Amino acid sequence: MDRYFTLKLSIDRNALAGPYHVELSHTLPGSAAETAPAIGTADFDRTALLEHELMPLEYGRALTKQLFAAEAIRQRFIELEASAQTQGKFYVCR
Description:
By secondary structure, the protein is an alpha+beta fold.
């Protein structure tokens, strides 16, 4: 069993246009059971991202804002971060 939280973030696009489907789930330390995923969508504005391509910090902020635009995804991540900090644990992304 893992001694840390495992974060799983899936991004998928079924059509050639439209938003991306985003799922965020996790496992708790010492458990193999995965939580039901938080589900949302994300629209990536490539033009806005390209404006920051030579500025890694700004690029990361713009990408994060777009990826976590859905309330359910953002809230799940905040809850996971708070749980990890409260328990003094780390989390890994898969």
